[in-house]
Description:
four-stranded antiparallel beta sheet, seven-stranded mixed beta sheet, Aspartate Aminotransferase, domain 2, about 40% helix, alpha/beta, Aspartate Aminotransferase, domain 1
Amino acid sequence: MAVKPEPQVGIMDIALYEGGHATLDGHTDVVKLSSNENPLGPSPAAIQAFQSASSQLNRYPSTDHAELRDAIGKVFDLDPAQIICGVGSDEIISFLCQAYAGPGDEVIHTEHGFAMYRISTLAAGATPVEVTENNRVTDVDAILAGCTDKTKLVFIANPNNPTGTMIGGNEVARLAAGIPKGAILVLDGAYADFVDDFDGGADLIAQHDNVVMTRTFSKLYGLGGLRIGWGYGPKAIIDVLNRLRGPFNLSETQMAAATAAVLDVEYTNHCRQENARQRSWLISQLCALGILCDASQANFVLARFSDAETATAADLCLQKNGLIVRGVAGYKLPNCLRITVGDQASCERVIVALKEFKGQNQ
């Protein structure tokens, strides 16, 4: 009998990723509200920088990302030497699992946490350990109870995706102090930019040698199509991650756009303010329709329906009206729909469609 190649243990436990749809049959005015994209787009300065850099496509990019790391350090008051840049924050998450977890090790994530934590854990041959949340909010006690001497990484997103909820600094500090000393706490800050006066955990990193923060340019900065992320942590950990990083993992166009985007603080603040305004309006209108949602701190809201069947029916009604949102049954929230906060016109279309749905189902 012929021997065939077999993938490493854990790989076949990873389901193939299915991206959100961007089109709907029969509709030409589709509004995509399923991927938490910035409806205002990137900074004009970022677009100009991208276009300028495109004239040098024949040149290899720099390998140290120095200009981008310096810009991030300047805006967030961080040491550039403790910053690593990657292909989205997903790549930083993958590096962490490759470097610090393997067969026999455990990696903790919460029950409604970002899917990449489990995927990257399995890819590294380690065992993902899921702990409960408390009404869709990260439960520090549940995480600490789930830790063992096999725990190597603990992932939390703060604010969380797909719930939009977050825990305060005291709870995060309690978590950092309570995990095993040989484990790393990873604070996924993909949505931290939407929270006013929030450092994503940077101050905590200065106090611990086993806390790392990840961030992205895909959400508030509107650069999801370029896939740029970064991480910040103790120099010793960043040095380890850089040994896994490919020398040319980011192109010059990516770095030029991200550098211009992060330095355009005025535009960033405008996007944050607009998101907060539209989010507040959307939540108030959903609640007025009797559709429950938590106090989101991100650029989306998690609309909760009475059961999975009602959520599916509401999704179909939205699609009929040219609106694409995200079903999150895969995150163990079958009765929920995640709705990106769009511009005013998009948010109004969502409410009009859901009023139609409620009228048909009362």
